[in-house]
Amino acid sequence: MPSSFALGGDNLPAVGFGLWKIDKPDTANLVHAAVEAGYRHLDSAADYGNEKEAGEGIKSALAAGLCQREELWVTSKLWNTYHRPEHVRAACEKTLSDLGLDYLDLYLIHFPIALKFVDFDERYPPEWFFDPDAEAPRMEIDPVPLHQTWAAMEDLKESGLVKHIGVCNYNSALLHDLMAYAKQKPEVLQVEAHPYLSQERLIKLAQDYGITVTAFSPLGALSYVSLDMAAENESVLETDAVKIAAARLGKTPAQVVLRWGVQRGTAIIPKTARKERLKENLALFDFELSAEEMQAISALNSNRRFNDPAVFCEAAFNTFYPIYD
Q1: Average pLDDT, whole number, for the chain?
Q2: Is residue 270 within 8 Å of residue 15, measured between CB atoms?
Q3: Environment class of residue 8 by beta-carbon count within 10 Å: exposed (0-12), middle (13-18) or buried (19+)?
Q4: What distance in Å separates the CA atoms of residue 315 and residue 136, rounded to the nearest whole number?
Q5: Annotated binding site for substrate: which residue ranges?
Q6: Which of 10, 126, 183, 209 yields a CA-CA distance of 20 to 30 A from 165?
Q7: Binding-site residues
């Protein structure tokens, strides 16, 4: 199993460090610690609200000589409020400024959801509500065709601000459509994927198109319990298939689940706020799951999606907006 994926002469490391839900005061130190532990792939987004702090961590890691900028793969994402073509470059430049970088290795459309523009000076990151102080705040949809946003993403690549472009949270139909009109084809598809949501058809489709797939939330429910989007008893780490494999291999259940992710041909971006877990999550290439173990873990699939706009947009943002059927 390769430890990286080739993208147009560059290499996307198979295991990245995800910055979602990392508190601002902890971000810089954790990014530095991640690079020190051996991570060369950082997965960020404007919406995470911690890109300035992530930039401080990158700066300190580079200043300490832990690696060169060219050895780091830094991903960020275009937020929903910046889908109009005239806002795409400004959003990217804001992210670059916050991260303290001259270019991004990868820039992704975060969701196939276009929201009305919120000025950078008014609120940043703008999150989901158009006006959080309204009497009944809601998402305000802006009817921007995705092909217009993609054309602006292509311009970013041509300008050299980003080296690679791709999409997050697209389904099969949107992917087919994108491949039909894209002049610069998407190079990465990032989607939720774990043993309870194996996404086999979508991953196969993307790979057939030559698109590398990155799985977010590769450990499943763990990131969502604190948000009341998952129950504690939904942890895949407690399943027999995972625990039996862990016992045979002398590895932790988390390592087994993460190895399942990379062994099936996807990059993964586990997130941890605990420094002791950094090396554990990265140590996935000195063992291999058997075909039977891979099959048993894949059989856990129940199409359980934790990050579902059809659920959280209505519950948290007073707007029903499904993007998956």
Answers
A1: 96
A2: yes
A3: exposed
A4: 13
A5: 110
A6: 126
A7: 110
